[in-house]
Amino acid sequence: MEQYVIKGGNPLVGEVEIGGAKNAALAILAAAIMTDETVCVENLPDVRDIHVLLEAIEQIGARVEKISPSVVKINGSTIGDVSVEYEFIKKIRASYYLLGALLGKYKNAEVPLPGGCNIGSRPIDQHLKGFRAMGASVDIMHGAIVARAEELHGSHIFLDMVSVGATINIMMAASMAVGNTIIENAAREPHVVDVANFLNSMGANIKGAGTDVIRIKGVDKLHSTNYSIIPDQIEAGTFMFAAAATKGDIMVKNVIPKHLEATTAKLVEIGCEVEEFDDAVRVVASKRLRRTHVKTLPYPGYPTDMQPQIAVALSLAEGTSIVTESIFENRFKYADELSRMGADVKVEGNSAIIDGVNKLTGARVSAPDLRAGAALVIAGLAAEGITIVDDIVYIQRGYEHFEEKLRNLGAEIEKVADEKEIQKFKLRVG
């Protein structure tokens, strides 16, 4: 198993280029199969989740041509199978976007339930409610969601809770339904807007993406397009907090500053200087950080995917901070790992109470998930001594060339495969 080994204590300084948004890319690649013409998608992030989804798309018969690590051409005219294998779903939740895409195009789709998800739980019931409202029969058979329709028709759908996945999946299916669909209480995230823009570039008729009411006029067919994905606001925010935690100075390039407003506001609140440019943001942390309270909310609120990163910064801030998680139940799994590094974190229900300490010290920790893994790397970079982060396969799911980008900012970090390589790193950095 690969690990990161880190020698902390260096302020991160320099420039970093942000890749395409993983969450937008996953939905856009699924939507690309909805036409029989060739679609070219640019600014793809070079991460594991994207590679897995492209394999799933190939497995159902589409032609996938990788032009470069960030550019792919997809042609869905050769799809012979509307059933996606469990192998792919097990690895990435977002394979469920193939449901909306296949149902919209073929009025037929069979996709396994995402990774051990009990159907009663929040994430997928809203998707199915939307498909049923458009006239599809949806059954759970042999661990898969089977959706079929003679014809999909427009409908008025009110989501019980704001769900990015359901908004996108319903939007895809509705773009090729007969008549008009209205989605109320829709998610407003930038990647919802990006998927709508992508579908519109293929000839769909979607209005209102980015607000809580999306209106879709169904069309008979979609056509080819060339499309470039928006930058990843979570990757950008991760580097912004890396600057804060290490007392660094980082210019984060290729971003849309508007998408980062909630993150930027918190960085300013805890005492960082943030300078915004047209497509870049500079974060400078020259003094000890201040305490704050933060609560995760759907966009445009503070993103749940940026919650572990701010917790690391606050563990080094002066005073007591409270971080409240209102989106996911299991988002504090990293708290025990952070405590091993000397942080003072107590989790009570859906809040973490963080008493700032003067310093963190290196330890062996394990990444419990994608964003928490990145946050533990930041903690290691800010800590005294050597930190080893296990289970980095999670981190590789969503951050492209993470260790290379950090090294370019002055971090001492290496990807290693065994104890021997860890010892070699320790000898090299002294």
Condensed summary:
Cell wall formation. Adds enolpyruvyl to UDP-N-acetylglucosamine. By secondary structure, the chain is α+β, with helices and mostly antiparallel strands.
Key structural traits:
34% helix; 4-stranded mixed β-sheet; globular; 2 domains; UDP-n-acetylglucosamine1-carboxyvinyl-transferase, Chain; 430 residues; 24% strand; single chain; alpha+beta
Widest sheet: strand ordering: 21-22-1-23
Output the radius of gyration.
22 Å
Q: CATH topology of the largest domain, anyone?
A: UDP-n-acetylglucosamine1-carboxyvinyl-transferase, Chain
Shape: globular
Number of DSSP helical runs:
15
CATH architecture of the largest domain: Alpha-beta prism
**What is the mean pLDDT?**
95
Spans where pLDDT lies below 50 across 5 or more residues: 116-122
Number of strands: 23
Sheet of most strands: 4 strands, mixed
Modified residues (2-(S-cysteinyl)pyruvic acid O-phosphothioketal): 117
Subcellular location: Cytoplasm
GO cellular component, one term: cytoplasm
Pfam families: EPSP_synthase
